[in-house]
Design brief:
5 helices; 81% helix; 129 residues; globular
């Protein structure tokens, strides 16, 4: 369980680093520890405020077939920027593009790691027998 949380945290940090490298409007001041800190704050903001925002904007989510969730993610990314001095996001469009890239990178890395997790589970099951 703890390993899973640490891996997800590292994946999010890598996604934020890639996004900062890709977008000129998103800057991270610091190194690896700063990226891990930004990832932790972004995860907490998403975990706490994300469901509330999606619940309150459910009619818009239904009308737009879920595309309004991109706007919600961008606002949560801007909120993370407001909470941290080490993250600088230059406006809503940078946050929108950044949140899309972060989502795509996180999903891609998690799909790439899924076979490794399955192989580990098989090894644990065979070792238990």
């Amino acid at each position: 369980m703890l390993r899973w949380v640490l891996v997800k945290w590292a994946v999010l940090a890598v996604a934020i680093a890639f996004t900062a490298w890709l977008f000129p409007g998103i800057d991270v001041d610091g190194g690896v520890l700063t990226l891990l800190g930004i990832a932790a704050v972004f995860a907490v903001v998403n975990a706490v405020l994300g469901p509330i925002a999606r619940l309150l904007t459910f009619p818009l989510l239904a009308i737009t077939l879920g595309l309004f969730s991109l706007v919600i993610n961008a606002v949560l990314f801007l909120l993370t920027d407001a909470l941290l001095d080490d993250l600088d996001v230059d406006g809503f469009l940078a946050a929108l593009g950044g949140s899309v890239v972060i989502s795509v990178v996180v999903v891609t890395l998690e799909l790439a790691m899924r076979p490794l997790a399955r192989a580990r589970q098989r090894r644990l099951r065979t070792a238990a027998i």
